[in-house]
Amino acid sequence: MNRANEVRLWAVMRLTSMVLAFAVLVHLITMIVVIRNGLSAEEILARTRGSVAWLVFYSVFVVVAAIHGSIGLRNIVREHTAWRGNSLTIAAAVFCVLSLWLGLRAVQGLFA
Amino acid sequence: MTATLTVAVWKGDADGGFVEHDVPQRANQTVLDVVSHIQRELDPALSYRFACRVGMCGSCAMRVNGVSRWTCRTHVDKVARDGRLTIQPLANLPIVKDLVTDMAPFFDKWERAEGPFVPSETRPADDDFAVVEPAGKQRSWADAAQECIGCGVCYSSCDVVSWNPEYLGPAALNRAWVQMNDERDGGRPARLRAVSGDAGCHACHSQQSCTLRCPMELDPASSIAGLKRLSFKAALRGKL
Amino acid sequence: MIADGPRQHLPYWGFVAHRVSGLLLALFLPVHFWALGLSLRGAASLQGFIGWTDLPLVRFAETGLVVLLAVHLASGLRILALEMLGWRAAQKNLVAVSFGVALACGLAYLLRAF
């Protein structure tokens, strides 16, 4: 991957991190507030079903988390193993798409 | 009776190993004194570098008990553990012999980071010097970073260099940051491109070993962060 | 903190914490999404999965995840502060505060969960 694209990946990493900083904070607070004597599917679904606000929040969260995580994994592999080059970038992209698919499917299930 | 230090010194090239010597301990003894004692009295074939002995030239940098330092400015009683010292050449550079490394890759990277000043104009007709406001923001940033003497301690201390041998390293990037803050410099856009990417400032993980180890008490980690900001702004404007 | 060995200074540990937590969280992400995807098949299926999460050991693992998330958030904010805002002098305090915030989140979760 050329220099300009590496810089773009870095910039995407930082931009997603700014969104994630907010989203993770909300997620942490939600978890700590919601967990009362254990997780309950009904409690979770009662909160999210039909709520456009939560739909938008979790959709954005899934997208930025999948992108951020994939770039991060690619960085870690490049620095700690001998795996470089296009095959690694493709593998990271596949991981990203897989996470996006599973994540958005889950969000859809929470909403409707 | 004088106390004795047990000193393990690296001998040979990358495939070499440690040789132990007993060295008499003295008051106010520096690690460079210890290495000199070994070369003069115990092993005349030992190769090492030094010149000024007072922390100006930066040529005596080695790893002492695993930590990169100027040996001339390191007192034995500050670093010896149970009367033992381990002395190795700098890390992340090819070993020529014993404690001498080949510094060429280190300085080649200064070139690759476009370290040299690029004049933006010839001397004006009225023969005046360019005026750089001493209290200016950029001038103060350049001031804070420019006293590097190229000893290689930061380069040897940086994990990212060992993970990614293409990485330009703290010293070269710190130099680039100085020049990026020189308003007379005409090579700034090209330099910013040269120091961007996964071999440049974006490889840095802010572990700050360079800042911690720099004997000049410079802050290369912050210089690199400055380059990241410049590069980020340029990338957002599509000018990288 | 006085650094004794080559890699014992606080910002280095900040980096290690960010990297390890990031690696584990990234690998956990698809699993997390897959488990939540069970909600597609209704509350019963999701509850079936969540029922399993009532085991004390799993509770502790969940607390671990909360801590990881908090660690990664806090140490990530440190990186943003260093890189984007150019903070210098306060960097060691930042690392310490990062660890503190992460620990506090984990404890809060643990207290709520039991």
Automatic annotation (TrEMBL), chain A:
It comes from Salinisphaera hydrothermalis (strain C41B8). One of its GO terms (molecular function) is metal ion binding. Its cofactor is heme. This is Succinate dehydrogenase. Keywords: Heme, Iron, Membrane, Metal-binding, Transmembrane, Transmembrane helix. GO terms for cellular component: membrane. It comes from the Bacteria. InterPro entries: SQR/QFR_C/D, SuccDH_FuR_B_TM-su. The chain crosses the membrane at residues 12-35, 55-73, 85-104. SUPFAM superfamilies: Fumarate reductase respiratory complex transmembrane subunits. It is found in: Membrane. Membrane-anchoring subunit of succinate dehydrogenase (SDH). It holds the Pfam family Sdh_cyt.
Automatic annotation (TrEMBL), chain B:
It catalyses: a quinone + succinate = fumarate + a quinol. Pathway: Carbohydrate metabolism; tricarboxylic acid cycle; fumarate from succinate (bacterial route): step 1/1. The keyword Iron-sulfur applies. It is an enzyme of class 1 (oxidoreductase). Residues 5-93 form the 2Fe-2S ferredoxin-type domain. SUPFAM superfamilies: 2Fe-2S ferredoxin-like, alpha-helical ferredoxin. One of its GO terms (biological process) is respiratory electron transport chain. It comes from the Bacteria. Coiled coil: none annotated. Binds 1 [4Fe-4S] cluster. Binds 1 [3Fe-4S] cluster. One of its GO terms (molecular function) is 4 iron, 4 sulfur cluster binding. InterPro entries: 2Fe-2S_ferredoxin-like_sf, 2Fe-2S_ferredoxin-type, 2Fe2S_fd_BS, 4Fe4S_Fe-S-bd, Beta-grasp_dom_sf, Helical_ferredxn, SDH/FRD_Iron-Sulfur, Succ_DH/fum_Rdtase_Fe-S. Keywords: 2Fe-2S, 3Fe-4S, 4Fe-4S, Iron, Iron-sulfur, Metal-binding, Oxidoreductase. Its EC number is 1.3.5.1. Residues 138-166 form the 4Fe-4S ferredoxin-type domain. Its cofactor is [4Fe-4S] cluster; [3Fe-4S] cluster; [2Fe-2S] cluster. Belongs to the succinate dehydrogenase/fumarate reductase iron-sulfur protein family. This is Succinate dehydrogenase iron-sulfur subunit. It comes from Salinisphaera hydrothermalis (strain C41B8).
From TrEMBL, chain C:
GO terms for molecular function: electron transfer activity; metal ion binding. Gene3D superfamilies: Fumarate reductase/succinate dehydrogenase, transmembrane subunit. One of its GO terms (biological process) is tricarboxylic acid cycle. Its cofactor is heme. It is found in: Membrane. The chain crosses the membrane at residues 12-37, 57-81, 93-111. It comes from the Bacteria. Keywords: Heme, Iron, Membrane, Metal-binding, Transmembrane, Transmembrane helix. One of its GO terms (cellular component) is membrane. Part of an enzyme complex containing four subunits: a flavoprotein, an iron-sulfur protein, plus two membrane-anchoring proteins, SdhC and SdhD. The complex can form homotrimers. NCBIfam families: succ_dehyd_cytB. Belongs to the cytochrome b560 family. Membrane-anchoring subunit of succinate dehydrogenase (SDH). This is Succinate dehydrogenase cytochrome b556 subunit. It comes from Salinisphaera hydrothermalis (strain C41B8). The lineage of its organism: Bacteria, Pseudomonadati, Pseudomonadota, Gammaproteobacteria, Salinisphaerales.
